[in-house]
Amino acid sequence: MPTPASAAGTTAVRVNQVGYLPDGPKRATVVTTAAQPLTWQLRDTSGAAVASGTAVPRGADTPSGQSVQVADFSAYRGSGSGYVLAVDGSVSTPFDIRANLYDSLRSDTMAFFYHQRSGIPIEASLVGPAYARPAGHLGVAPNQGDTSVPCQATVCDYTRDVRGGWYDAGDQGKYVVNGGLSTWLMVNSFERAKRAGADAELGDSTLRIPERGNGIPDILDEAHWELDFLMRMQVPEGKPYAGMAFHKVHDAAWTGMPLRPDQDPQPRELHRPSTAATLNLAASAAQCARVFRPYDPAFADRCLSAARRAWTAAQANPALYAPASDSTGGGAYDNTQVSDEFYWAAAELYATTGESGYRDAVTNSPWHTSSTALSAYGFGWADTAALGRLTLATVPNGLPADDLARIRSSVTSAADGYVSRMATQGYAVPVPADGYFWGSNGEVANDAIVLATAAELTGDGRYRTGALETMDYLLGRNALGQSYVTGYGTKSSQNQHHRFWAHQLDASLPHPPAGSLAGGPDSALDDPVAKEKLQGCAPAACYIDDIGSYSTNEVAINWNAPLAWLAAYAAERSSTGVCAVTYKNDNVWSTGFTATVTVKNTGSTTVDGWQLTWAYAGGQRVTSAWNATVTQDGTAVTAHDADWNRGIAPGATVSFGFQGTHTGANPVPTAFSLNGHACT
Ligand code: 9MR
Predict the structure, then answer these.
(1) CATH class of residue range 577-678
(2) Active-site residue 497, yes or no?
(3) 439 Cβ below 6 A of ligand 1
(4) Is residue 532 among the annotated active site residues?
């Protein structure tokens, strides 16, 4: 018999409450004490069984403290909404199976950052009236910051304008360490999507932000907002510690809840510079210089010069540590191990500039060869060596081929570790049983980034499966049957710890907006609510959707950033089997030709609007076209739908034709991409 549901509204059949991708893994976990394999049935919205099978008993699952079986319905390729999985008298919450499952999560998880912006009004026209608010910390009373912020006593004798950036989390502090990592994740998401030919999905006018329509990809506009702040935190020339970054700026004392940012009356203070913050600035600004270059070269130059100054200053002050005791009014983000930050910053500077000094800093770092750069616990704000590895593994650079192969295999072996751990666990989580600490959901999403990067490096589908299954975990296939993302899933977190989205404390305030990720289970019970309510919890069940539980239920930029990364990855359409193309020369003469191209949708969902690209190897040029708009830039040809033929149903085809010129040879192109994805 299934174990009775542990909480009201929680069924024994735990699924991704949002759903599954038609071509992705589809597994569920059933909480049960039954020893014999249970039969499962997938039912569509009419109640008809569309697939069935037998679950695999797993027995005791340590992190959840439950006895479970796993049902695998991945072979089902249909799509629709309102499916349920029925097992032994229990029925899951309803879910969808569809290719565009993650499109809205991609934009909502990114919109989180606009909501968190400091120093700019949050506009109702972009977020709706409930989430609109005046600018916070622009020097307008009762705010005392952030336009002219003094240092803490003895740190400096001047003030700085450190407006802008994102509030870190439920508090209104701004921390360079966490800001650098979060910015890096956002820009890395764009850089990865660009390699996959899917950057248009993160491009201009894809987000609800004030900068939409400025010709620059919106995800980079959002990162720019934080990068400006990070650079304002750099100590100016002529002052002690010039080039270093102040560790953080926040209130002199902890503020109560709720508190809208513009109503914060506390004085704000700059805390002394630290090596870790300086290297976060160096790394994220060096990455900025590389990735922004095609869109905004002047900004790229500014980033590069800030990165170089930061690097030089960190080398001159390699052990300036933020103290653990400095947690009045804001978090400490203390870190006394910064050799990994040096490695990360050197890797970014090297990948961007190719300069030998930075290359030497990379190859001389113990982290270049350390087997723990990508650890079982993943990366995080204090552990950044993995970020250097991910950049060196994916961004073209001049390291010797054998060294690059070693770096890449360090990424795939870490991913192998996650895949095998997921296989042994009832809920397919990449973190170890003792890894459910403060921000564990961020750790899960960070591990998924390593998995997705391994998928990119090898094309091995097991890694994509792993990355997608972490999404299942975050969206409900977990010990509590809880979706940790506001607005996504039947039973989703909505009382995350936040000073403005504090509906639980004040009904006139909103819940967190859709797409906000809770920190997740923390077995150390690091706050009074968790201590009171969660005594004796199994590690993966140490979570409570209560605004007071800041150690399990806060939101934070460094947790939403990897979720946004993962959502963008999951939202990209499968790169295999979505299209098949035939290219036929109908008529060829000495200097010209006509040809017909036929595109078949071999996927399971309708293509709505298409762009087909290929390259001409023989100097051909398209001169006119019908049933599509065809343009050519050098050898690269792009055919757009003619609007009336923008829809291609599953299994259907569209054809278009054109006339062109050639110079003798007229070889037929063989590689085509539909909307950025390779066709077969
Ligand atoms: O994410 C941080 C976690 O790793 C630490 O254990 C914890 C205690 O120092 O702090 C977390 O970060 C918080 C920060 O200090 C202040 N803003 C909210 C952050 C998320 O809870």
Answers:
(1) mainly beta
(2) yes
(3) yes
(4) no
332 lines ligand 1 (CB under 6 A): yes
pLDDT along the chain (680 residues), means of 10: 45 96 94 96 96 96 98 92 97 95 97 98 97 98 98 97 98 98 98 91 95 97 99 98 98 98 98 98 99 98 98 98 98 98 98 98 98 93 98 97 96 97 97 96 98 91 94 98 98 98 98 98 98 98 98 98 98 69 94 96 77 87 96 85 88 95 90 75
**455 by DSSP, 3-state: which?**
helix
Domain residue spans of the chain: 13-97, 116-369, 577-678
How would you write 212-236 as a 3-class SS string? CCCCCCHHHHHHHHHHHHHHHCECC
Does ligand 1 lie within 6 Å of residue 456's CB atom?
Answer: no
Fold of 13-97: Immunoglobulin-like (2.60.40)
Residue 585: partners with Cβ closer than 8 Å, 6 or more residues away: 593, 594, 595, 666, 668
Catalytic residue status for 511: no
Tally of CA atoms within 13 A in the half-sphere of 340 that contains its CB: 21
Per-residue pLDDT at 604 = 67
The pLDDT of residue 676 is 63
Q: Is 437 helix (H, G, I), strand (E, B) or coil?
A: coil
Is-catalytic flag, 171? yes
Q: Is the CB of 376 under 6 A from ligand 1?
A: no
Strand partners, 282: none
**Is domain 116-369 in CATH 2.60.40.10, yes or no?**
no
